[in-house]
Amino acid sequence: MSSPLPVVTRAPRHAVELVTRGLGVAGCVGIAVFSANLGATAWQVFAVALLAVAASIPLPRAWMRYAGLFLEALLIAVIVVASPAGLRPSLVYLVVPPIIAGFSIGIVGVAVTITTIALVLGVGTVLTQEAALPLPVVEVSVWLAAAVTLGLATVLARHLQNRLVPIDPGYATARALLSSLRDVARILPEGLEESVLARGTLAQVAQILPLQRAGVFMFAPSGSLVEVAHTPEDAPALRPRPDRDIWAQAFDLGSAVQRLGQLDGLELGTDHACAVIPLRLDGQLIGAVAIERTGGLWSIDELNQTQEALDAAALRLDAARMFEDIRDLATLAERQRLSREIHDGIAQQVAGLGMIVEDISQRTQEPQTATDLARVRELLTTMVTELRLSIFDLRVESGHGIADALAAFVRQAGTESGLTVHLVLDEDPATMPVGVGPQLLRIAQEAVTNAHRHGNGHTLWVTYRASPEEIFLRVADDGVGVGSSTGRSDSFGLMIMRERAANIGATLSVRQRAQGGTVVDLSMEPRHVHTPTPRMPQSDQ
């Protein structure tokens, strides 16, 4: 496994500059105090201190800070040149600009400041110190060499710090955790696929309890119970009722509960039996397994043995659910990127091509060519519509609300078709079961598109409400209507809408509007859950 990257705290740039300049002034003061002629060097100390204070004033733009640093190097070199040889405490401050340049700019900054200082010192020393030339040359050269050395050392330290310190320590931690997760997933015998682990759990339960139908349910972040696997696969899915009946009893007790009858009805006195067995992990409820059979109740020993097996399986299922959440978060950014690329790329190009075809069709004089171009234009319009539907699909995050995407689509469709749009939205995204949002959006898109293409109306009404009690969608228009209570039997779009509604357990109706037009209604129960606080039993009864 990969070890975490070392974390080193990066010092603020301005603080480092203040400390460096402060040490430079302190060194200058120290040499001046211990010199034989304090009066002759006092002006240098004052000039260096004034220069350090002026150079420490924060500047708003980077180029201003860099220009100020190079000016600081120029001025300290002038101060040194103006000082008498042998009485130059200001020489200490020569190392300050290269150090700061190495920290804030890098090797280029060090080269520029050193070059500036060397040119001023070289020219100034030759012009002003002819009488005692060897002494000032040696004196200046020593401090200039020190400036070069310290400047390059700062560049090296900056390079090593950048190699050791992540740009954002949070990403370093995330990388280490993801690396560990990858290594663990490779060695797990069953991997981290939630549906695979859930089916394995059902197989384990079936070895202990005789059953005819069963399902594994996990709590989603929204609080709803989501089915992740059921057996047999061709059997109808079980519908959890966690806030009532046997479900609520099992969650309140925190242990297995059984009764005669089926999960969706009491039916006492029959030979049907059902049970709900919670999935428990560290004193919390993370889901449940529901089972049904024909043949009477199970024994207490069988239920206790199954509860123990599910307690052991809960850790695997919870880890798989967390892995699923991480994967969803990772794909969300990619979905957003793809939607932007489609919108800014191929969708715009196809729309532009349609405009070109429209322009050519208006200039042509041949009827057959005009007819062919009209067909091409219609196909391009269909392509643009489909691309936009795909963009909206990509922008809807699984398990979250669809109000924003639906509003954007309806307003855009109304603008393009000239329809007057009345939009009512009232959504609590937390009530949306996982995977339902994209299906609802597609049904709404199909209904709006049908109203535009086939309704020939002037007004469109779209109502969408999502609450803990019900999810309701209505798309109505004042066009020609469907002509029957069931809709047109030959409409492929209506058939797809009904299939999508059936897949999410919703009821869809298409009917004639009383004042003329079509009304498409969809309703479903979001199966909202008030997550119970588990009370773990002292003993299995």
Describe this entry's structure for a reader.
This protein is α+β, with helices and mostly antiparallel strands. The chain is 56% helix and 14% strand. The strands form two sheets. A five-stranded antiparallel β-sheet has the order 2-1-5-4-3, with helices on both faces. Helix 14 links the parallel strand 6 and strand 7. Helix 1 packs antiparallel against helix 2.
Secondary-structure-derived class? alpha+beta
- C-alpha end-to-end distance: 44 Å
In sequence order, what are the helices and strands, one letter per element? HHHHHHHHEEHEEEHHHHEHEEHEE
Query: Shape, please?
Result: elongated
Radius of gyration: 38 Å
**What strand line-up does the widest sheet have?**
2-1-5-4-3
Number of E strands: 10
Multimeric status of the protein: single chain
Please estimate the helix content: 55-70%
Uncertain runs are: 1-11, 484-490, 528-541
Major β-sheet profile: 5 strands, antiparallel
Count of DSSP helices? 15
The domain count comes to 4
β-sheet strand percentage: 5-15%
The overall average pLDDT, rounded, is 77
Question: Mind sketching the topology for me?
Answer:
Layout: H1 13-34, H2 38-55, H3 62-81, H4 96-104, H5 107-128, H6 134-164, H7 169-187, H8 194-208, E1 213-219, E2 225-231, H9 245-253, E3 257-260, E4 272-281, E5 284-294, H10 300-344, H11 346-363, H12 367-395, H13 403-417, E6 420-427, H14 436-455, E7 459-466, E8 471-477, H15 492-503, E9 507-512, E10 518-524
Parallel strand pairs: 6-7
Antiparallel strand pairs: 1-2, 1-5, 3-4, 4-5, 7-8, 8-10, 9-10
